[in-house]
Amino acid sequence: MEITGKSVFGGIAIGKLAIFAKAYHQVNREKIEDPQAEIRRFEEAKEEAKTQLGLLYEKALKEVGEVNAAIFEVHQMMLEDLDYVEAITNMIESQMVSAEYAVATTGDNFSAVFAEMDDDYMKARAADVKDISRRVVTILQGGSSFELAAGEPVILLADDLAPSETVQLDKSMVLSFVTRHGSANSHTAILARTMNIPALIGVDFPEDAAGKTGIVDGYKEKIIIDPSISVLEEYRRKQEEEEEKKRLLLELKGKEDVTLDGKSIHLYANIGSVADVAAVLANDAEGIGLFRSEFLYLESKSYPTEEEQFAAYRQVAEMMAGKKVIIRTMDIGADKQVDYFGLEREENPAMGYRAIRICLDRQEIFRTQLRALYRASCYGTISIMFPMIISVDEVKQIKSIIEEVKAGLDEESVPYRDVEIGIMIETPAAVMISRELAELVDFFSVGTNDLTQYTLALDRQNPKLDSFYDSHHPAILKMLQMIVDNGHAGGCWVGICGELGADLTLTETLLRMGFDELSVSPSMILRVRQKIRETDLSA
Ligand code: PEP
Ligand code: MG
Predict the structure, then answer these.
(1) How far is the centre of ligand 1, averaged over its atoms, from the C-alpha of 498 (Å)?
(2) Residue 221 in 3-state DSSP?
């Protein structure tokens, strides 16, 4: 069976199909006959949950370090908490209800009690107790989540994937993403590019596909379910050819990013987590042009502390060994929602309370991040960049907060380095006042994903609009030139970190416009390098 969709990243994947079910189903109050059997089910599910948490701890330890991994140990301990366990078993016995119901209800009750406490540490445990209860209920319900179902790398089928869900995924177990919904500019698409795996959206796959063999052809924009032996063989050959092409690209490692006529440009990579640095190094990027720091917040169950953030930024800076690392302060809001921020539902989240707006409004969050960034500055070459800027006043406020943060560090004799400060140009307002903004900062990085959405008035999350989404629209190209000219006139260097930077059909245009830097997904580095090296601007 063949189903077509829309490709958001090319490539070929062959493997078992698995459906990413929203891990947790509604739990109803169900009466049971045998409470002892139900308690045994609970005990077994609890043991299974602890095993999973142990595996997650080991994985996180390798990928994000001890401080960030510690949460899984805390969860393991919470599962053994006597009050929690007794509340569940008592409820099963006294009310003759199912283990699922007893765990879910106890989780909600404990969470409500923690949330009311004055102590911040205990407050933060409210989300944890809910989380461990969900894990146990999921296991009791037959382990419907992908994490539980998959024992080998799979092609992952899903309705849609929110950034908060993709951060939980074991990426080494995913060969390809195939979703029913989602748009070409969504973060699942960006993640697929980072991971260098094919991805399709708009695919209406059948529910019984799980467990069957599938082929994703990211070039021909289709998925083949249960292919014949001959089709499978044909695709295995194609996959080998792909591998060969990748090997040839690897020969560009160590080569300069310079055109045939000698114009050079900085080629950096975009990342969302510490773990992505491996791909940056493997693809030989000259630096990191965008570290989307909000993923630290998305991975966390409560506000990441200064120490946790410091550890992550320091690790990235150290791994990059002196190469430039541009860290963007958190861009929470819009499609990147985190429960513990307690943000209200909005009619137009993309144009709502997000990014720098939250930071300037809830400054304790911002100051914590800035302190962590400045402390980490001693361990490499860090630059800081701010998202969603629309005014000169915002930049002035940011700079005065930075001065206060630095003064605080001075008082405590905490060392830091002066770092480059930049802003993202991703709103039409910022483009129009880019000449004034350039006087205040060291660099601009153009966020073409948002700039396109706001300029063309096209919601980047809405798949119905993909056909209207013209990233080469003359309005965008004019704006790009204006940003470069105004940035340079004000003494800034100017780069692009939106997806347009990796559009090979525009590489020559961007070079001609005078961009100083392109920051692209790690998987695109060598392809863009190849394009730059084939370009002759004198021709
Ligand atoms: C952009 O808007 O182009 C950008 C790089 O930021 P994000 O995709 O994270 O919004
Ligand atoms: Mg953006």
Answers:
(1) 5
(2) coil
Rounded to whole angstroms, how far apart are CA atoms 479 and 471?
Answer: 12
CA-wise closest residue to 501 among 278, 266, 310, 291 = 266
Q: Cβ neighbours of residue 417 under 8 Å, at least 6 residues apart?
A: 374, 377, 378, 382
Q: Which range, 157-171, 183-197, 421-435, has the best average confidence (pLDDT)?
A: 421-435
Annotation says 359 is catalytic? no
Dist CA 98 CA 29 (whole Å): 7
Nearest CA to 290 out of 415, 159, 384 is that of 384
* Phi-psi map region of 11: left, alpha, beta (phi>0 left; psi -120 to 50 alpha): left
Structural tokens at position 13 = 């994947």
Q: Residue type for 327, please? A: I
Residue 94 has pLDDT above 70, yes or no: yes
Q: What is the pTM of this model?
A: 0.73
Mean pLDDT is highest, among 26-30, 46-50, 111-115, 485-489, for 485-489
The pLDDT assigned to 19 comes to 85
Kindly identify the ligand whose nearest atom is closest to the C-alpha of 336.
1
CA nearest neighbour of 355 among 410, 297, 300? 297
pLDDT at 144: 45
Atom of ligand 1 at shortest distance to CA of 190? 8
CB neighbour burial string for 495-533, b if at least 16 within 10 angstroms, e if fewer = bbbbbbbbbeebbbebbebebbbbbbbbbbbbbbbbbbe
Residue nearest to atom 3 of ligand 1 (CA): 447
Return the pLDDT at 108: 84
Q: Which residues pair with 31 in a beta bridge?
A: 97
| CA dihedral sign, ordered 356, 358, 359, 365 | negative
Half-sphere exposure for 59 (CA within 13 Å, toward CB): 14
Distance of CA 355 from the midpoint of ligand 1 (Å): 11
Whether pLDDT at 234 is above 90: yes
Which residues have CB under 6 Å of ligand 1?
290, 292, 331, 426, 447-450, 497-498
What three-state secondary structure class fits 50? Answer: helix
- Please report the pLDDT score of residue 149 as a whole number: 42
Active-site hit among 75, 187, 359, 492 = 187
* Smallest CA separation from ligand 1 atom 10, residue: 450
Query: Each residue of 255-275: pLDDT tens digit?
Result: 999 999 999 999 999 999 998
Q: Write out the two tokens for 496.
A: 């692009």
Q: Are 170 and 147 in contact (CB under 8 A)?
A: yes
Closest-approaching ligand to the CA atom of 447: 1
- What is the arithmetic mean of pLDDT over 336-362? 92
The rounded distance, in Å, linking the Cα atoms of 236 and 10 is: 16
Q: How far is CA 519 from the centre of its chain?
A: 16
SS (H, E, C) 244-308: HHHHHHHCCCCCCCECCCCCECEEEEEECCHHHHHHHHHCCCCCEEEEECHHHHHHCCCCCCHHH
Asked if residue 249 has pLDDT above 70, the reply is yes
Q: How far is the CA of 449 from the centre of ligand 2 (A)?
A: 6
Torsion of CA 517, 521, 523, 526, to 10 degrees: -10
